[in-house]
Amino acid sequence: MPAAPVISPLAEREITIKINDAMMAEAFRNLQPAALKERVNTTLRESNTPTLINICIPAAKRLESGDIRIHTATRADAEVLKHHYERWIPMFGNAARVITHTYGVRVDSVPTSSINLDSPQSIQAECKKMMAANHANIPNCNITYVAWLTPEGKKKRFTSVRVEFSTPWDANKAIAVL
């Protein structure tokens, strides 16, 4: 008998889709939650992606903002959907995107001369540098963003930065290491 899936807390199983196309938002406006859920499940079944075919969405709804929130049965299903978003997100329009949540950690006493946050490219480079430097303590972590804690931060000799992680577990590990 296969093991029953572990039911994760609700927030870990939610995926919010930002619909940036007014015509698509209007198309979903009057769709009932059951019909929306069925459209998502049909899209997943017809995706021809083996990892998506067996995922079933138990609930979906339109938020007051016009965005869509879907719920998965397990955290693992949510992670698979986020990883393969390009296979199913077009059903919500070409401008739709998955809203990703990040988990911030404040790092104090950072020498400003040791970090470059002047452009998007340099921020990405700093993220990669931090992931490599912390690989022993937080293996396979994903740092998504780094920023000065305050606008005046780069003018000081030492300052604080905000480091954004993609999972709460990595953020908690970073806090434990600090």
In total, the number of strands is 7
Proportion of residues in β-strands: 15-25%
Listing every helix as H and every strand as E from the N terminus to the C terminus, the arrangement reads EHHHEEHEEHEEH
Gross morphology is elongated
Reported for the largest beta sheet, the result is: 4 strands, antiparallel
**CATH class placement of the largest domain:** Alpha Beta
Mean of all residue-level pLDDT scores: 90
CATH level-two architecture of the largest domain? 2-Layer Sandwich
Q: What is the count of distinct domains?
A: 2
Strand line-up in the sheet with most strands: 2-3-1-4
Task: Provide a count of the helices.
Answer: 6
Low-confidence stretches: none
* Head-to-tail CA distance between termini: 44 Å
Q: CATH topology of the largest domain, which one?
A: Alpha-Beta Plaits
Structural class of the secondary structure composition? alpha+beta
Rounded Rg? 20 Å
Please give the share of residues in helix.
25-40%
Account of the protein in words:
By secondary structure, the chain is an alpha+beta fold. It is built from six helices and seven strands, in the order E-H-H-H-E-E-H-E-E-H-E-E-H. A four-stranded antiparallel β-sheet has the order 2-3-1-4. A three-stranded antiparallel β-sheet has the order 5-7-6, with helices on one face. Strand 2 and strand 3 form a beta hairpin.
Q: Nutshell version of this structure?
A:
The chain is α+β, with helices and mostly antiparallel strands. It folds into 2 domains: 10-99, Alpha-Beta Plaits (2-Layer Sandwich), CATH 3.30.70; 103-177, Alpha-Beta Plaits (2-Layer Sandwich).
